[in-house]
Known about the structure:
- The structure holds 2 protein chains of 2 kinds.
- Chain A folds into 4 domains: about 5-200 and about 345-455, FAD/NAD(P)-binding domain (3-Layer(bba) Sandwich), CATH 3.50.50.60; about 205-345, Elongation Factor Tu (Ef-tu), domain 3 (Beta Barrel), CATH 2.40.30.260; about 475-555, tRNA uridine 5-carboxymethylaminomethyl modification enzyme MnmG/GidA (Arc Repressor Mutant, subunit A, Orthogonal Bundle); about 570-629, DNA polymerase, domain 1.
- Helices cover about 35% and strands about 20% of the residues of chain A.
- In chain A, the strands form 5 sheets. In chain A, strands 1, 2, 6, 7, 8, 9 and 20 form a 7-stranded mixed sheet that branches.
- Chain B has 3 domains: about 10-115, Probable tRNA modification gtpase trme, domain 1 (Gyrase A, domain 2), CATH 3.30.1360.120; about 165-215 and about 395-460, Up-down Bundle (Four Helix Bundle (Hemerythrin (Met), subunit A)), CATH 1.20.120; about 220-385, P-loop containing nucleotide triphosphate hydrolases (Rossmann fold), CATH 3.40.50.
- Chain B has helices at about 30-40, 95-110, 120-125, 135-155, 160-185, 195-215, 220-225, 240-250, 280-285, 290-295, 295-305, 320-330, 350-355, 370-385, 395-420, 425-445, 445-460, and strands at about 10, 20-25, 40, 55-60, 70-75, 90-95, 115, 225-230, 250-255, 265-270, 275, 305-315, 335-340, 360-365.
- In chain B, the strands form 2 sheets. Chain B has a 7-stranded mixed sheet.
- In chain B, strand 12, helix 12 (about 320-330) and strand 13 form a beta-alpha-beta unit.
- At the A-B interface, helix 8, helix 18, helix 20 and helix 21 of A face helix 3, helix 4, helix 5, helix 16 and helix 17 of B.
Amino acid sequence: xxxxAGEYDVIVVGAGHAGCEACLASARMGFKTLxxxxxxxxxxxxxxxxxxxxxxxxxxVREIDALGGEMGLNIDKTFIQIKMxxxxxxxxxHSLRAQADKKSYQxxxxxxxxxxxxxxxxxDEVVEIIVEEGECRGVKTKNGAVYKAKAVILTTGVxxxxxxxxxxxxxxxxxxxxxxxxxxxxxxxxxxxxLMRFKxxxxxxxxxxxxxxTKMIEQPGDREIIPFxxxxxxxxxxxxxxxxxxxxxxxxxHEIIRKNLHRSALYGGxxxxxxxxxxxxxxxxxxxxxxxxxxxLFIEPEGLDTEEMYVQGMSTSLPEExxxxxxxxxxxxxxxxxxxxxxxxxxxxxxxTQLKLSLESKEIEGLFCAGQINGSSGYEEAAAQxxxxxxxxxxxxxxxxxxxxxxxxxxxxxxxxxxVTKGTSEPYRIMTSRAEYRLVLRQDxxxxxxTEKGRKxxxxxxxxxxxYREKAESIEKEIERLKNTTVSPTEEINEFLRVRKSSEIxxxxxLYELIRRPEISYxxxxxxxxDRPQLPLALGKQIEVEIKYExxxxxxxxxxxQFKRIESKRLEPGIDYTKVKGLRLEAQEKLNKIKxxxxxxxxxxxxxxxxxxxxxxxxxxxxxxxDRE
Amino acid sequence: MVIRDGDTIAAIATAPGDSGIGIVxxxxxxxxxxxxxxxxxxxxxxxxxxxxxxxxYGYVKDPTSGxxxxxxxxxxxxxxxxxxxxxxxxxNCHGGSVPLKKVxxxxxxxxxxxxxxxxxxxxxxxxxxxxxxxxxxxIDIINSKSEMGLRTAMSQLDGGLSRRLGVxxxxxxxxxxxxxxxxxxxEHDIEEITREALEHGxxxxxxxxxxxxxxxxxxxxxxxxxKTAIVGKPNVGKSSLLNALLRENRAIVTDVPGTTRDxxxxxxxxxxxxxxxxxxxxxxETEDIVEKIGVEKTKEYLDRADLILFVLDAARPISxxxxxxFEIIQGKRVIVLINKTDLKVEIDMxxxxxxxxxxxxxxxxxxxxxxLDTLEEKIHDMVFSGQVRSSDPxxxxxxxxxxxxxxxxxxxLEAIESIDAGLPLDLISIDIKESMEALGEITGESITxxxxxxxxxxxxxxx
Lengths: 629, 463
């Protein structure tokens, strides 16, 4: 039996990391929103590692935060360890990573949803999307409820026709012992969406008391905390941190795995889905890198109120008894007790080239997709797409232009452009190497890049905006002051320089010029800079980056200007590229498939050559003149 | 793929070949400032201050060496009354293909980009200069020219060049993957590349690029000329040989400050091969060079030569001095000239044949003007081995390849600078990636994807 259960502006299907950001964004923008999840206890579930951030991923979280999203605030509330990675490798790639208290992370996110105005939360399974006249107008659930909506956002994670693999055993199921969603896929296919099959996996969870940490290397957190959210200062967040532990596999471990390789679901041929290269199973690592004598694993706490520990690096689809055997061959894990068995999971996702840059389907109006359903992987990648889908569903209802961040504005832009322009053949992970302008897309300046945009959309609170303005002004003021403050070549100054192996000065020099020297840091300079204002730690670091790398930053800004020129040349979605004279056949086909939104996007489609781009430019000019006549 | 738009482009607008006059054409926002930076007008005013659309007489000067490259007529034409409706400059060169290419190289050094096929016409159309009815013709030009460009590019890329580019790319890719893997996966036990290894790799790659740039037919040869030494004992006719070559082929006479203050070099152009005659002052002196500066110094001096013209006197028997020179120039690129064949031959031809078994030996009489043609032919053959002619259509493509190679080198040199300055890895990688992108423009590959693939290929990464 079906009944009309409600009418909404926006319905979000799934309350994982993408779904949470999506429903919060549309509700915060003032639209009546419903989020439907299979299980209320799995809201914002971290089904794999208990951590947020990492290289590139940490950048995404800060961008989500700068736009007014929730992930940064939530991890700041619930981290039990935090680290800035890559501090030795340069400012563009500094990345925050935190260990989360999983349950606490979920509870706080659930609370944020529950307290949100305009947002309803419902436990049920969506089995069908309602598509009429090429428009998505609502969803039907297993319990017979029909919800009407102006826009629907699919954030289904790994639940669509999810299938679990443990050695020779396989069964229908979602992650973490939850149910799969088996019916929705058929409805999506019927609506014309092309599906793909991807695979991922997770390691075992083990009991803390069964581990011998004396045989492992301790991995503590940072003492100086830089928060994820621009709304927090490090002083607000200080707390006791919990350590992780490092240990290694050995020849015996590898021997056990090799002996049982044929029983792995991955190598027994059971799994058809494509797995991610950056997250291979341990058996995959052994096969691909047979000469590597040892592999590292990190033991990470799942939370403060549990003895469960996550075994990073040991994802596997080997049978349960083999898992026990090889885990126990590892130093420190000799007596390990496995509480949750490692598994591989296969799931349906869509080919993301079916989406526009706004994350709306090209074919079905009002249908948006975000997160793992788009072939990505990772909580942060999901959340990043979620907030954009939420914003753009709202913008669509308002009749306003979608928010499209380009590759020079945000990692979010890199992520979405990569997915919808090039598609992906494996679960996609963000990497800083994928960003062309990473010196400009730093984690420290995400607010400067995005907070104004978030404010225009109505997502940024007054308080957030005030903080952003204050920070921007104090940076500007301090840089000005450093430019105008000159030190004289006194013995004290030259002694300061000598100690740092920096060449001595003979005439007066501004503090600004001194910071440009690689061996002098802003922090160090405090010793000879009496009038320095008291600034937060993160701010000082940002000032230093702006000064030290000014030359490189200018160079990237010039490249961005070039990039923006062709990015701003729009292509209408209605163009039939087979009718554009002079395009090569391959280019015609690719362009018709992707329907790029700009010349810039077209240039990133493989199979479209510079000559084809010239032809497109001429076509646009031709069209412009004909239209004018 | 890097698509650039609205920058300043340049091309040699006349057909390639050895015609007397050639035009280098520039279009784009920087056209006038770039041309101004290498043009010295006779009136002394900078190009930007000279009247629009007028031919101005003057010289193109290499701003780094201060050397005058060619005598030229330059016209600056300001937007929008130009073919492309952008600022344009035309530089009319008079010195033949060598200075023409040098002028082209200079504008590229100053920031112009070598134009894509049909790019001037494309801009003319996009900026509304060409009638709508001609749009298809413009597309045809772009397509046919890029196809031709592609064909020549492919044929160029077949074989040697492609292999060497492959080696260079491979080296950079391995370095990049190493840096990026350690950046993107800091928690994995990936051994971080040391600055020494990075610098060594970058320097090695720069060397490889240098060699490649030098082999491009418009490369080192055109830019610097084939360094040629004329040696022989006193009174064998070195000075007459120089004068004879200069009389027929003098291109530009320049004073280049050399290692010693009185060394003067002259350019001559032999069948499209530019020669730079070393130490012309020394040649004109009568003293024996070996006696004057010593065997070691002579060796060093001759080591710098790309080609040695060794002059012997047919009318005199082989002397000790000759034999010393024999010794020094063994194993070098030598043409042996037996001058004064108009006199009674006293020299032992057998011994010469023996000493220079694999080298060309040309009898000549400078007095009677005999043998000079044979020498010129020999020089041409030696350089080109009959493969490259200056009218080869590949030349344009070469300029573009060279542009890419030079940009790749420039980025790597910047990387080395950053390594030396102790800058962090993420900045160094920007330069290395830029270098790869410049090379990628020759081969048309997507660098980012390749780097990502390489990371997963080379390193065991996974949580």
